[in-house]
Amino acid sequence: MMLSIIIPVYNEQENLIKRLSFLCEKANKNNIEIIIANSPESIDESQLVCNKYAKVIHLDCKIKGRAAQMNAGAKLAKGDVLMFLHADVVLPEDFYLQVKTAVNEGNKFGFFAYKFDVSTTLLNLNSKFTKKDGLFAGGGDQCQFFTKETFKAFKGYNENFCIMEDFEMMDRIRKHKIPFKIIQSKATVSARKYNNNSWLKVNLINGYVFLKYRLGVHPTKLRKTYKSLLRESV
Question: pTM of the predicted model, to two decimals?
Answer without folding.
Answer: 0.94
